[in-house]
């Protein structure tokens, strides 16, 4: 009977139990090797935890579920290990080697002890221990100490009230606003589990282009329901703010104001009351994220005030509550002869030292907008008195949506490891962010989420690795990209060593391949208008000059590139002399940054020995060819992978291959009209005209 | 080892194998009763099918997967039953008792024979046989014959190219346009399976507010890839048409035209070529669905032509291809003193007999727009020379989105069973639709889909029943609503008899309960502006008069309701005298339709013995109270249900309860200002003011 039922279950189960990617890296299928299971089992006889702290209980239950699945045996949770050995002990203590959220994994006698100075620390330690088992690492004589380098490790969701996600490519929003607070989607909890497993401790649930609804009692109740789900996982909720909310949001029994002027006492009072209203329902509310006077969003400048005036007003409204104001520096004003590259620096550096201690300024990694490669933002290192947070983008707005495989860790690391030289050699961006360079009290790193309601969370299965890598790097920016990739592959895709190596290698090359077939040599911002899909370097009409793509590449009969040296916009001068020196001379500027700073003649010979035009073609063609190579590599992985996950990626690689050639053809045909030079051998000129390529772009711009 | 692995699988499996509703009514878990399994097993020793027809192969594999799951034993598929008994034989023959898609289930000797005149017929028969087993019906001495009453049974998807769904409440579109045609989401196949199991044989994949992208080679390729997945399930793909596509869509190598005039030879040529282009890639393409000169969509009238001119142009473009043009009659023009009720009738009846034989006119069930209750559209029966298709709405645009339990079958049946009297008594709307009344060659029924990317497809688990019921009624409109509900509950939720009865009863009452707390006595179109969420009867400003809600209810100090008799708009005159007679006298008009046709004084005594005002209050209050009753009933079902499905519905019922009171309070407070009468005992006046209720509505209108 039971056999029959199991058979039935297995026969029917393909419908529900295929690996659809829902479990992310938290896959707890039994380890295939019985000896290995037995070895781990000897150290997992029980899980001892005392007290009823909800986060500690989470640590115990996650560890239990994980180990029971991986080891294929029940693992009891008990109150005390007194007199028992061969188990795992979870405990909160006071360990000088650990900061508030750090953890220690240590063998003590015959037990494994997971200790920390807080329940969250223990939770992170529990997941770290599971990671050891999932990746087949030994747990004998364990002695691991790990402290997060950044305090606030958060996701930013650009999710709208109507369920859409700005720049989202994985379905609709995870948050069901019409169902909350009464109905709790089981997925909310799984979202929290995934974040907690990485040490992510905060989430901004709504778009920075914020709806004022979130400042109403109706929606605060909904957000509070989410916060209740996230709390046991050590995750705090933050809200994006519509700056003039005081003008549109009523009481109850309290009329909206005529103003949103941050220096108006009535406005300040309005926000003080709003803050108290929020904390009454969300006692651990994290604070506000603000996009103001940016891309049409209103802000303090509408009242002749500064960003500091606006941010400080909100910070003072937070009063004694344990919350912060995260103010975005992403601003730029339309102006024909200005350089968007300079905008944030010019608006924000004069305000250094003028911000309230509760304010953090959140800066995108580069000066423009999440391009495939950008020089680091000149703001990093330029505001010693103001805590600066890093804003990375996980969702692939400029990286091929959900059909291009682009592993982002190397891109994040590239920025974090860059030396700003503001306090001499070794003044890396990472040290600005983790507070060590300027002694910031507050430190934060944010990732614009790539999650959505798609079953596998990120659309592209490989996109899960970007969520994973962001979390790991926010915890410890010194972790190597390839190590993070290897870990993720083992936990998510396969433990077969050759496959782990091959897929890790693919991931490590993927971003540079994408750069080559889309924006080589420092080209930037030439993607399809509005939707940011496909190539559109020819775009020379738009509502504002800095939305035209000819503004960025400046191709002409002489050459291509944006001269940002002293003879051009001189944006280069915003950096320290040592950095300027790296990038000021077109002869010596590293090729990846060349066209970011220089207008280079088509016939200029580069360090590769090729002319600029030839080099450009070589990169576009080899980039597109590399996608074929990626497909071939992936095809060989089939035996080591779950069929559904294999097919998902194989299908997306086929799209990527088609679009890589689309990008290549569009760009060599378009720039070729200026260069008036042939495609260098051995490459063949595209077998279609620029007009044919443009036609495809136009199709995707139709209503 | 195997035991360990299974244990591990079971311990870990809760993560993936909870009943998240993905399988819909195609749940093939082992039947709990071993004797019952054994009984069925005796008739399921094998499945015999010959030939390689893809649809026949589908029938065999679906039957195999279903029976293997339900019976917990392997069921081999073999080529011929020659000399074997105790199995199932699938065969295509020529059976005069069956139409092209009908099927017969018959015991022959010791075998069960599923026969039909086409492979699709066999497929539908196979699912019918599975339904017998799923619902515990006997398969001994089986003799079932079933023929679909309508030829085209289709879903209309209002899905946009950006992945959003107009009036969709279950996540984003199922169609991943940026991944197609290279990547095929496994879900496409499961979508086809669900439809085929109901006999749905067509799907319009894009919104009637159509993007011209679908008329480009780029998108036709994508649609063709979907058609390839659907074909083995007997489902044909249709496309909504942007009427002036010829003005915006280029070749390849073929410029767009200056015109979209249906009588312009160049335009007719353009469409003829476009049709050939489509059929070259989709040989079984079903045809076009058109929304023209409606709500701002362009159409033939822009060129001084009629709907017939436009539809006939497309029909002639289809030429000899086996496709149809489905032209929607949903039109109404802004005019202060017109009655929107009359618009479609006035525009379309003069065109009767002027349409090409390939044209079907698709009419919404009621004259306005999918309101909670509408009188049948006066077009039914008024166009004897023009095949009319029924358009029902499954997605709950006006029925509480995805948080209100409203079983729609009784609403569909209410319309289908109404007697138009156009050919004497018994001239029901159903007989118009199935062609029997006027001898239509073409017959069709369409449901505006409630599907989306949410894991359970429809957001509200109970919403699956509306998809199911539509499919069953499109096949056979004589099926009883409660029978369909019972079937669906047994296949989807539980087989526990008491629970089946209670849940069926809940479903059967659900729509009337919704009517009572939102639009009792024939009130209509008083929902929140634009988003159609919540109540907004006070709306008296809008871009067009017929978008104001005061236009519909016309409340004043005397009474409420829209006088559509001879002393009013006289829309009533569009019906036959017999129908007019039912609705012309406010004393005798059935209360559900009262305010559709009459402006009734607040103090008028109704057939219930109560004044209009008191009756209105009784319905709003009892309606809202009934939701509590629904919650109590559901709570008692817990032991009989899967925990996840139980929680899903329980959570949504809690939202429904809150919103029912919101509707009640909004409407009694608003209409009370005109009636100037107290809330009748025993009911208590709302404990909040109209302003407070309006405030909540305003919140949901914020950007």
TrEMBL record, chains A, B:
Its EC number is 3.2.1.131. Residues 1-18 form the signal peptide. Belongs to the glycosyl hydrolase 67 family. It catalyses: Hydrolysis of (1->2)-alpha-D-(4-O-methyl)glucuronosyl links in the main chain of hardwood xylans. The active site is at 295 (proton donor), 369 (proton acceptor), 397 (proton acceptor). It is an enzyme of class 3 (hydrolase). Residues 458-681 form the Glycosyl hydrolase family 67 C-terminal domain. GO terms for biological process: xylan catabolic process. Residues 133-457 form the Glycosyl hydrolase family 67 catalytic domain. Homodimer. It comes from Rudanella paleaurantiibacter. It comes from the Bacteria. One of its GO terms (molecular function) is xylan alpha-1,2-glucuronosidase activity. Residues 24-129 form the Alpha glucuronidase N-terminal domain. It holds the Pfam family Glyco_hydro_67M. GO terms for cellular component: extracellular region. Keywords: Carbohydrate metabolism, Glycosidase, Hydrolase, Polysaccharide degradation, Signal, Xylan degradation. This is Xylan alpha-1,2-glucuronidase.
